[in-house]
């Protein structure tokens, strides 16, 4: 795959800055307010970080909404709602598999048709049937420390889900202005998906993306700043593997 004729790899490097305080609790992937974790998630060095999976999930949801509402994208982009209404059902996939089951190259044909049937967002972010082209590393803290603030929140009664009388708890948040190292790659991006890739970058750079818990209170606004985009192709792949990224590999799209 690596030396495939159509190989390409986009790399986006930059800084993800918190524009409002950020609360990503340990084990808060469920986003369940009742299961409120008090501490922010930290890495093995005890520093707060932003899990790549959380960022990717939020990014995907935002892209789905934007593409479906026609905001910021060409009419040609399509998106399903992967959780509630996926573009490909198991029945459709079984039908495609059945169609090619007697062919010699059934695996390739089946994979090709499944890929063609998927919506643009699934093609980039992955689905049950195809791996994601896009990956985001965990964003580690840039610099030695971040300011962690303790905040009062209203305690929630776990039995009833209502605010418990006179009970307060503290939760931690990373202060606004914290900077994290951002690194995202997209492999083998089809030409017709480049506009969607630009939309992904624009959303990251807009400062509108909200991560973690308590976003309804305005928390978790992050913005991609000071970023550079590189494009690796067959032409510069060898140089990239031997020497790493260089300015000649920069990709600009404005
Ligand atoms: Zn889809």
Structural notes for this entry:
- This protein has helices spanning 52-69, 90-99, 106-117, 120-125, 194-206, 234-243; strands at 8-18, 134-136, 148-156, 163-174, 179-187, 209-210, 221-233.
- It is of the alpha+beta class.
- It has a 5-stranded antiparallel sheet with strand order 2-5-1-7-6. Strands 3-4 form a two-stranded antiparallel ribbon.
- Strand 3 (148-156) and strand 4 (163-174) form a beta hairpin.
- It is globular.
- The structure holds zinc ion (ZN).
- Residues 80, 82, 86-87, 118-119, 121-122, 127 line the site of zinc ion.
Topology at a glance:
Blueprint: E1 8-18, H1 52-69, H2 90-99, H3 106-117, H4 120-125, E2 134-136, E3 148-156, E4 163-174, E5 179-187, H5 194-206, E6 209-210, E7 221-233, H6 234-243
Antiparallel strand pairs: 1-5, 1-7, 2-5, 3-4, 6-7
The structure holds zinc ion (ZN).
